[in-house]
Specification:
Layout: E1 6-9, H1 19-34, E2 38-43, H2 53-66, E3 75-76, H3 81-93, E4 97-100, H4 104-117, E5 142-145, E6 152-157, E7 161-166, E8 174-176, H5 184-194, E9 199-203, H6 207-220, E10 226-230, E11 233-234, H7 250-255, H8 260-268, H9 282-288, E12 299-300, H10 303-315, H11 319-329, H12 336-342, H13 345-359, H14 365-371, H15 373-376, H16 385-390, H17 393-406, H18 414-427, H19 432-444, H20 452-477
Parallel strand pairs: 1-2, 2-3, 9-10, 11-12
Antiparallel strand pairs: 4-5, 5-8, 6-7
Helix pairs in contact: 1-9, 3-5, 5-6, 8-10, 11-13, 13-20, 17-18, 17-19, 17-20, 18-19, 18-20, 19-20
Length: about 475
């Protein structure tokens, strides 16, 4: 019976959860769930100067928001430093590692020589087989791995295929620094082994690391996990995704009003495909996902496509569910905290009633707030310049008559209100639009909105008539 699949996501907490990191986490999560396995989370916080609690919180929060959970406790790499040192000492005792006393000046000279000779191998191995009795006094050594000197190191990568390195080109890598702190290479291997990780799914910028890490596994006699190195995400121009392309962190997409399910769906299709299918429920993603379908070329981030996909998710989300998502997002959206402060049950009910018309016109939650401005506005509502142009003296007089008629409309329904407006337009010898447009301006302060009769129903009789009469008062004051 094959061993259970264990994947891991291992971010460094030196900043926000990068969108590329989020996709890596998603791929690990999907593969583990698809295979009935486990995904673990390890925070690689060994860089003590750059690792911060705020970054750790941002990573955990970003994963949770995306709906990516993990199994067991979060593991912190720095707390395991003693275990990493033990492995280095074990390799030393077994003759598979050695103490190196090369000075910084000697190392700089080796690097310069290697560059001059066009060699990728920088360290010349001068302490590899040297008698430790020759060690200079007062120098604290590093511990280096005795890497194989000939032959090749091969990784059968699940995405990249067979990748081979000539061992003569690979250095004896440092396992422990002179101050006794373990290096990233050692810590990663020891942690992955101790966590029983079976599949390492990560960005292809780590591909060269796989060869060096395999040397440590082999030296310890440990089984090597399967590797899957996924191409990085590029911007629309084909260059590696960077600040100049726009939002990089998951938190930024949250603040831009994207739904987590939509972002998750977009990320899964960045470099992975399943026929022509574009829209996936979480269950469909899990059922279909396999690393074999990850492409070898870099995926390009398309902001317009993400926005379109988000619009699809918004239109297909139940009104009450979308309102709940909007409420959850308000602390992060521009102007959201102000909306949250005034959100009581009557306003919630109005927003829910307006949702069908609002979500059809919105691609993000920010669009939804913008569209809902007529619901959120307090009398007298602000009127933009385009809308003001529609509110001529004649239009205001017509609105005053219409307000009187609305007082008596029963029931307060879209159908009954439409009949009333049509009748007034006919009496005045006007087309419906010539009445509906000033009415929209008075009720919403804008020239565009959901259907005007839906707007009237959402606002209710008292608010609608009040806003219309406010325009009469404005005319009188003028």
């Amino acid at each position: 019976m094959s061993e259970p699949v264990v994947t891991r996501f291992a971010p460094s907490p030196t900043g926000f959860l990068h969108i590329g990191g989020a996709r890596t986490a998603l791929f690990n999560w999907l593969y583990a769930r698809a295979k009935g396995g486990r995904m673990l989370l390890r925070i690689e916080d060994t860089d003590r100067e750059r690792s911060t609690q705020a970054a750790i919180d941002a990573i955990l929060d970003g994963l949770s928001w995306l709906g990516i959970d993990w199994d067991g406790e979060t593991i912190y790499q720095f707390a395991r430093a003693q275990r990493h040192r033990e492995v280095a000492e074990a390799l030393l005792a077994a003759g598979r590692a050695y103490r190196c006393y090369a000075s910084p000046e000697e190392l700089a000279e080796m690097r310069e020589t290697a560059r001059r000779e066009g060699r990728s191998k920088l360290y010349d191995g001068r302490w590899r087989d040297r008698d430790p009795a020759e060690a200079p006094e007062g120098v604290k050594p590093v511990i280096r791995l005795k890497a194989p000197l000939d032959g090749e190191t091969v990784i059968e990568d699940l995405v990249q295929g067979r990748v081979a390195w000539q061992n003569k080109d690979l250095d004896d890598l440092v396992l422990l620094r002179s101050d006794g702190t373990p290096t990233y290479m050692l810590a990663v291997v020891v942690d992955d082994h101790d966590m029983a990780v079976t599949h390492v799914i990560r960005g292809d910028d780590h591909l060269t690391n796989a060869a060096r890490q395999k040397h440590i596994y082999d030296a310890m006699g440990w089984s090597v996990p399967a590797f899957a190195h996924i191409p990085l995400i590029h911007g629309p121009d084909g260059a590696k995704l960077s600040k100049r392309h726009g939002a990089l962190g998951v938190d930024a997409y949250r603040a831009m009003g994207y739904l987590p399910a939509a972002l998750r769906n977009y990320l899964v299709r960045l470099g992975w495909s399943h026929g022509d299918q574009e829209i996936f429920s979480t269950e469909e993603m899990i059922a279909a996902f396999d690393v074999a379908r990850i492409g070898r070329s870099a995926a390009r981030f398309d902001f317009a496509k993400l926005e379109s996909l988000n619009g699809h998710y918004m239109r297909n989300t139940a009104d009450a569910e979308l309102l709940a998502a909007l409420e959850d997002a308000l602390p992060y959206l521009p102007g959201g905290p102000e909306v949250a402060a005034k959100l009581d049950e009557p306003l919630r009910a109005k927003l829910l009633a307006a949702m069908p018309g609002l979500k059809d016109r919105a691609k993000t939650l920010i669009d939804l707030i913008t569209g809902a401005a007529f619901v959120l506005a307090e009398r007298p509502i602000p009127i933009d310049d385009k809308a003001k142009a529609l509110l001529t003296p004649e239009a205001r007089a017509l609105l005053a008559k219409l307000a009187d008629a609305f007082e008596a409309v029963e029931p307060w329904s879209a159908e009954a209100l439409e009949q009333t407006v049509r009748a007034h337009a006919e009496d005045a010898g006007l087309k419906l639009g010539q009445v509906a447009q000033p009415l929209r301006a008075a009720l919403t302060g804008k020239t565009t909105s959901p259907g005007i009769f839906d707007v009237l129903v959402v606002l209710g009789r008292t608010e609608s008539v009040g806003r219309m009469r406010d325009q009469g008062h404005v005319a009188a004051e003028a």
